[in-house]
Design goal:
about 65% helix; binds fe (ii) ion
Length: about 230
């Protein structure tokens, strides 16, 4: 009787161990699958961003650099959105709507006509239209729509001002300006990071959110330089 009970208990214990092992395996497999899914999302977003950039020999890896600078600034500001992949998706895809702007306008060397400029200004809205059904981009789509808004409300497409501009888009604006200034353009050579810094600081409170600029200020030029060289 006693031996029978012990045997039954031992069998139960073995069974529980098997369940636990199964659960551990399932959990590990789930985790691997979700990491794989995340990596696929990121690779897809990068592919799309690179397809947009491939048109423009001048900007090169602009989207990758802006994403890296933007995340660095968001981290310096202690923002949770720095850890949200949707933020990086938005940074990478900000200009996807430019696919709808003809080369003749996008690469025009002279100044744009009123009509041409208004077409260029539609690219954030076109971008959001293109990405509308891609649910995993989530809040990233707010960056696409609002990446040309200005803190003083003089930006586009919605003329939002101050805190009404989504935070990730306010971070993006600083990163975007920094990369634009430190990259050669057909009509002017690149500025140094030190010169670009002065320009960005001047824009605090008009073009840029002063809090975001304050976070940017804490990051040395060498950090951005190293990021630029690593991409
Ligand atoms: Fe843009």
């Amino acid at each position: 009787m006693e031996a029978d009970l012990v045997a039954r208990l031992e069998e139960k214990e073995r069974q529980l161990e098997r369940y636990a092992a199964d659960l551990r395996e399932t959990f590990k497999a789930e985790r691997a699958r979700s990491a794989e899914l995340r990596a696929s999302y990121m690779a897809t977003v990068r592919a799309l961003a690179n397809a947009v950039e491939a048109r423009d020999a001048y900007t090169g890896r602009h989207a990758e650099r802006v994403a890296a600078y933007g995340l660095e600034i968001a981290r310096a500001a202690g923002l949770e959105l720095a850890d949200d992949p949707q933020t990086e998706f938005g940074f990478l895809l900000h200009d996807v709507g430019k696919v709808a702007v003809p080369d003749a306008i996008l690469f025009k060397s002279g100044s744009l006509t009123e009509e041409e400029y208004s077409l260029v200004r539609r690219h954030p809205v076109i971008g959001v239209e293109i990405l509308r059904d891609v649910d995993f981009l989530g809040e990233g789509k707010l960056v696409v729509r609002h990446h040309h808004e200005r803190w003083d409300g003089q930006g586009y497409p919605d003329g939002l001002a101050g805190d009404a501009i989504p935070l990730a888009a306010r971070v993006f604006a600083v990163a975007d300006a920094l990369d634009a200034l430190t990259t050669d353009r057909p009509y002017r050579p690149a500025s140094s990071f030190a010169d670009a810094r002065e320009e960005v600081l001047r824009g605090a409170g008009s073009q840029f959110d002063p809090i975001v600029v304050a976070a940017y200020r804490q990051i040395p030029d060498a950090t951005f330089q190293a990021l630029r060289e690593s991409l």
